[in-house]
Design a protein that fits this description.
9 helices, 49% helix, mainly alpha, binds fe (ii) ion, Hypothetical protein af1432, 205 residues
Protein backbone atom coordinates (compact mmCIF):
# COMPACT_ATOMS: atom_id res chain seq x y z
CA UNK A 1 0.00 0.00 0.00
CA UNK A 2 1.41 3.37 -0.96
CA UNK A 3 -1.48 5.39 0.30
CA UNK A 4 -4.96 4.83 1.66
CA UNK A 5 -8.01 4.74 -0.63
CA UNK A 6 -10.33 6.73 1.60
CA UNK A 7 -11.13 10.38 1.12
CA UNK A 8 -13.10 10.65 4.35
CA UNK A 9 -11.63 9.33 7.58
CA UNK A 10 -14.79 7.47 8.52
CA UNK A 11 -14.42 5.23 5.45
CA UNK A 12 -10.92 3.97 6.37
CA UNK A 13 -10.37 0.25 6.98
CA UNK A 14 -8.43 -1.37 9.80
CA UNK A 15 -5.62 -2.27 7.40
CA UNK A 16 -5.40 1.30 6.23
CA UNK A 17 -5.19 2.59 9.78
CA UNK A 18 -2.54 0.02 10.68
CA UNK A 19 -0.60 1.17 7.60
CA UNK A 20 -0.93 4.81 8.70
CA UNK A 21 0.09 4.02 12.26
CA UNK A 22 3.39 2.53 11.11
CA UNK A 23 4.08 5.59 8.98
CA UNK A 24 3.19 7.88 11.84
CA UNK A 25 5.59 6.15 14.20
CA UNK A 26 8.36 6.74 11.66
CA UNK A 27 7.22 10.32 11.17
CA UNK A 28 7.34 10.97 14.92
CA UNK A 29 11.01 10.06 14.94
CA UNK A 30 11.68 13.09 12.75
CA UNK A 31 10.26 15.57 15.28
CA UNK A 32 13.65 16.52 16.70
CA UNK A 33 14.97 17.35 13.23
CA UNK A 34 11.90 19.42 12.44
CA UNK A 35 12.27 21.29 15.73
CA UNK A 36 15.93 21.99 14.96
CA UNK A 37 14.95 23.18 11.47
CA UNK A 38 12.44 25.61 12.98
CA UNK A 39 15.15 26.93 15.30
CA UNK A 40 17.34 27.41 12.24
CA UNK A 41 14.65 29.64 10.70
CA UNK A 42 15.04 31.89 13.72
CA UNK A 43 18.42 32.92 12.38
CA UNK A 44 16.61 34.55 9.44
CA UNK A 45 13.02 35.28 10.41
CA UNK A 46 13.40 36.91 13.76
CA UNK A 47 11.98 39.65 15.91
CA UNK A 48 13.60 42.87 14.71
CA UNK A 49 15.13 45.51 16.95
CA UNK A 50 17.13 43.35 19.34
CA UNK A 51 20.92 43.13 19.15
CA UNK A 52 20.76 39.40 18.42
CA UNK A 53 18.44 36.97 16.59
CA UNK A 54 15.98 34.71 18.36
CA UNK A 55 18.17 31.73 17.52
CA UNK A 56 21.17 33.42 19.16
CA UNK A 57 18.98 34.28 22.18
CA UNK A 58 17.98 30.64 22.64
CA UNK A 59 21.57 29.47 22.19
CA UNK A 60 22.80 32.02 24.68
CA UNK A 61 20.20 31.06 27.27
CA UNK A 62 21.05 27.37 26.79
CA UNK A 63 24.79 28.05 26.94
CA UNK A 64 24.36 29.89 30.24
CA UNK A 65 22.28 26.98 31.55
CA UNK A 66 24.94 24.51 30.47
CA UNK A 67 27.82 26.47 31.98
CA UNK A 68 25.94 26.79 35.26
CA UNK A 69 25.64 23.02 35.45
CA UNK A 70 22.00 22.62 34.51
CA UNK A 71 20.74 19.18 33.56
CA UNK A 72 19.72 18.24 30.03
CA UNK A 73 16.03 19.07 30.60
CA UNK A 74 16.86 22.67 31.53
CA UNK A 75 19.35 23.04 28.69
CA UNK A 76 16.95 21.78 26.02
CA UNK A 77 14.18 23.93 27.50
CA UNK A 78 16.41 26.98 27.32
CA UNK A 79 17.30 26.40 23.69
CA UNK A 80 13.65 25.82 22.72
CA UNK A 81 11.81 28.24 25.02
CA UNK A 82 11.18 30.86 22.31
CA UNK A 83 10.65 28.49 19.38
CA UNK A 84 7.07 29.75 19.17
CA UNK A 85 8.03 33.33 18.39
CA UNK A 86 7.55 32.81 14.65
CA UNK A 87 4.44 30.63 14.53
CA UNK A 88 2.63 31.67 17.71
CA UNK A 89 3.80 35.15 18.66
CA UNK A 90 0.74 35.78 20.89
CA UNK A 91 1.23 32.61 22.96
CA UNK A 92 4.77 31.55 22.19
CA UNK A 93 5.38 30.27 25.71
CA UNK A 94 2.47 27.83 25.65
CA UNK A 95 3.40 26.78 22.10
CA UNK A 96 6.92 25.84 23.17
CA UNK A 97 5.63 24.04 26.26
CA UNK A 98 3.37 21.79 24.17
CA UNK A 99 6.31 20.77 21.97
CA UNK A 100 8.41 19.65 24.92
CA UNK A 101 5.63 18.42 27.25
CA UNK A 102 5.89 14.69 26.36
CA UNK A 103 9.66 14.60 26.82
CA UNK A 104 10.81 16.90 29.63
CA UNK A 105 9.98 16.95 33.29
CA UNK A 106 6.93 18.82 34.49
CA UNK A 107 8.84 21.53 36.35
CA UNK A 108 10.74 22.50 33.23
CA UNK A 109 7.68 22.43 30.98
CA UNK A 110 5.74 24.59 33.45
CA UNK A 111 8.56 27.08 33.48
CA UNK A 112 8.61 27.34 29.69
CA UNK A 113 4.81 27.58 29.62
CA UNK A 114 4.75 30.53 32.01
CA UNK A 115 7.98 32.34 31.20
CA UNK A 116 6.14 34.94 29.14
CA UNK A 117 4.17 36.15 32.15
CA UNK A 118 7.22 36.01 34.42
CA UNK A 119 9.36 37.98 31.97
CA UNK A 120 6.88 40.87 32.20
CA UNK A 121 8.46 42.01 35.45
CA UNK A 122 11.38 43.33 33.39
CA UNK A 123 9.48 45.50 30.91
CA UNK A 124 5.68 45.57 31.21
CA UNK A 125 5.61 48.80 33.26
CA UNK A 126 7.08 50.64 30.26
CA UNK A 127 3.85 49.89 28.41
CA UNK A 128 1.62 50.66 31.38
CA UNK A 129 0.90 46.96 31.92
CA UNK A 130 1.02 44.96 35.14
CA UNK A 131 4.62 43.84 35.55
CA UNK A 132 3.69 41.56 38.43
CA UNK A 133 1.54 39.24 36.36
CA UNK A 134 3.66 36.40 37.77
CA UNK A 135 2.15 36.85 41.24
CA UNK A 136 -0.96 34.93 40.30
CA UNK A 137 1.22 31.83 40.06
CA UNK A 138 2.74 32.16 43.53
CA UNK A 139 1.01 29.01 44.75
CA UNK A 140 2.76 26.88 42.12
CA UNK A 141 5.60 24.68 43.36
CA UNK A 142 7.48 25.77 40.25
CA UNK A 143 7.16 29.51 40.86
CA UNK A 144 10.74 30.04 42.03
CA UNK A 145 12.16 27.91 39.22
CA UNK A 146 10.45 30.14 36.68
CA UNK A 147 11.67 33.27 38.49
CA UNK A 148 15.23 31.94 38.36
CA UNK A 149 14.98 30.74 34.75
CA UNK A 150 13.91 34.23 33.66
CA UNK A 151 16.48 36.06 35.77
CA UNK A 152 19.52 33.90 35.04
CA UNK A 153 18.96 32.57 31.53
CA UNK A 154 16.16 34.35 29.67
CA UNK A 155 16.23 38.09 30.37
CA UNK A 156 20.05 38.05 30.54
CA UNK A 157 20.57 36.49 27.11
CA UNK A 158 20.44 39.37 24.64
CA UNK A 159 24.18 40.09 24.64
CA UNK A 160 25.92 40.08 21.23
CA UNK A 161 29.31 39.72 22.92
CA UNK A 162 28.50 36.53 24.80
CA UNK A 163 30.27 33.44 23.43
CA UNK A 164 27.43 30.99 22.92
CA UNK A 165 27.77 27.42 21.76
CA UNK A 166 26.38 26.79 18.24
CA UNK A 167 23.16 24.94 17.48
CA UNK A 168 25.18 21.83 16.54
CA UNK A 169 26.37 21.67 20.14
CA UNK A 170 22.79 21.37 21.42
CA UNK A 171 21.36 19.25 18.58
CA UNK A 172 22.39 15.90 20.13
CA UNK A 173 20.70 16.91 23.41
CA UNK A 174 17.50 17.86 21.58
CA UNK A 175 17.58 14.52 19.74
CA UNK A 176 18.23 12.67 22.99
CA UNK A 177 15.20 14.03 24.79
CA UNK A 178 12.88 13.63 21.79
CA UNK A 179 13.95 9.98 21.63
CA UNK A 180 12.56 9.42 25.14
CA UNK A 181 9.34 7.50 25.59
CA UNK A 182 6.57 10.08 25.46
CA UNK A 183 4.92 10.95 28.79
CA UNK A 184 7.07 8.46 30.70
CA UNK A 185 6.29 9.11 34.40
CA UNK A 186 9.98 8.68 35.20
CA UNK A 187 10.75 11.55 32.85
CA UNK A 188 7.78 13.76 33.76
CA UNK A 189 8.48 13.53 37.52
CA UNK A 190 5.13 15.04 38.41
CA UNK A 191 5.31 17.50 41.28
CA UNK A 192 9.06 17.20 41.75
CA UNK A 193 10.86 20.50 42.33
CA UNK A 194 14.59 20.48 41.64
CA UNK A 195 15.10 24.15 40.89
CA UNK A 196 18.01 25.57 38.96
CA UNK A 197 21.54 24.52 39.89
CA UNK A 198 22.95 26.64 42.71
CA UNK A 199 24.94 29.64 41.54
CA UNK A 200 28.68 29.18 41.89
CA UNK A 201 30.09 31.65 44.36
CA UNK A 202 33.73 32.57 44.22
CA UNK A 203 35.69 30.93 46.99
CA UNK A 204 37.08 33.32 49.58
CA UNK A 205 40.85 33.70 49.40
FE1 LIG B 1 9.86 34.15 25.48
FE1 LIG C 1 13.47 34.30 25.77
Amino acid sequence: MKSVDFTRMKDGTRDEYLFLRDLELEHNKGAADRVLRELGFQAEETLPGYKITRLEHGLQAATRACREGADIDWVVAAVLHDIGDGLAPQNHDHFAAEIIRPFLREEVVWTVEHHGAFQMVYYAHHYGWNRFEREKYQASPYYQSCVDFCERWDQASFDPDYGSEPLDFFAPMVRQVFARKAYDPEVIQKGVVKGLPPLQTQAAE
